[in-house]
Structures are given as C-alpha cells and as structure tokens.
Amino acid sequence: xxxxxxxxxxxxxxxxxxxxxxxxxxxxxxxxxxxxxxxxxxxxxxxxxxxxxxxxxxxxxxxxxxxxxxxxxxxxxxxxxxxxxxxxxxxxxxxxxxxxxxxxxxxxxxxxxxxxxxxxxxxxxxxxxxxxxxxxxxxxxxxxxxxxxxxxxxxxxxxxxxxxxxxxxxxxxxxxxxxxxxxxxxxxxxxxxxxxxxxxxxxxxxxxxxxxxxxxxxxxxxxxxxxxxxxxxx
Length: 234
Prior knowledge:
- InterPro entries: Ala_racemase_N, PLP-binding_barrel, PyrdxlP_homeostasis.
- This is YggS family pyridoxal phosphate-dependent enzyme.
- Belongs to the pyridoxal phosphate-binding protein YggS/PROSC family.
- GO terms for molecular function: pyridoxal phosphate binding.
- The chain is α/β, with parallel strands linked by helices.
- The chain has one domain: TIM Barrel (Alpha-Beta Barrel), CATH 3.20.20.10.
- It is built from ten helices and eight strands.
- Strands 7-6-5-4-3-2-1-8 form an eight-stranded parallel sheet.
C-alpha cells in the first residue's frame, strides 16, 4: 500500500498530470489532506512529505490535536471542511485559516462585521448542496443562482465553491454534478470577479480525477493519503 509519503506523491503526480491537461497550462491543484481522526505524528509525516494544506472536520478534534501550532512551525494552512453549527461560528473563525464549508448564516454574519481583528479565517468557500440532501449544509444551486441574481451582498465574501457529492452517487452522477457546479462557479466568477472567485473544491480520494477533468482546482484527500480511517487513531 505504501507509506504516507509515497501515497501523497502518487496523488500529486496523478492530480498534476490531469490538471495540466484539463487547464491546458502549467500549474497544480490544491491538495487538502483530510486529517479527520489522524493523530499528529501521521499528519507530520504528510507535512514532511510536502503537504501544505490540511482539512479538519471538527473544531474540538483540531484543538485537541493542536494542529494550529503547525501553522507557525511548518507554514501550514488549516482549513475547516466540516458541517457548520451557528454556535461555533466565532470559534471557527478565530482559529482556522479558511472555511471551505461556509453557509449563508456564516457569510451573512461576516458581512456585518466591521472589526475583524480577532478573526483568523480569511478564505471562504460556499458549500453547494448539489444533491439537495437534507442532512448536508450549504445551499442548492437554484438557491445560489437566486441570491446572485438578487445581488446578495454577502456573496462577495466568497473565494469560491465547495461541494460533496452524495455518498451513493455513481461516477456518471458525479460527473453531472461536477459539471453543473463548475458551470455555476464560472457564472459567479463572471458576476463577482474572476480575481475574487478562484477556488473550486471538488473531488475526494475515489473520484478526484473525475473532478479535475470537470474543472476542480482543489481536491480533498483522506484515505488516498493516510489509508483506511480508524477511529482509534486519534
């Protein structure tokens, strides 16, 4: 199966090859290492192998592991990728560098804040609930288009979009979703400014190649780097 370093190198090689082919120019996608349930020594292995961005799903777990200390010592970007709860908005904003699962509640609150001195987070991706699943956060594509058409001011807080496909979706269904979200991303970039809306986070360990082919420039990889997840690891 290989070491963490070997798996990360393989993911990077495959992702970069596809990205350059899809984009038609040099460059590489952001690779966010999903570190949910991973203990600090394994996270450090990934960092030593070249990882520069990690994604955590839970505020308390991230605090317990003290991944934020790695920001200074290793130049790491720590992204929040989990479901948001309104009572934890402030705490998340104060410790994470980015929120990739931003919802309308968080973005509305941000728009009303004048003094952001205590806020660490500076990059926000609006979560697209492309499968219109009740258990997921974010907004559906029709809702986002309606808000954009109305000139909703807090949309100017976003740097891009993030989506998670339904767990049971076939590759054909995923391709349709990724294509649809990519179209929406380009619409928003046109409306809000392509220099502002730059990040499209789509694709995980089992389908990141498909996502990149449909325009993703940020992928979230957990098991593809760390191997099968074990709750006993933390």
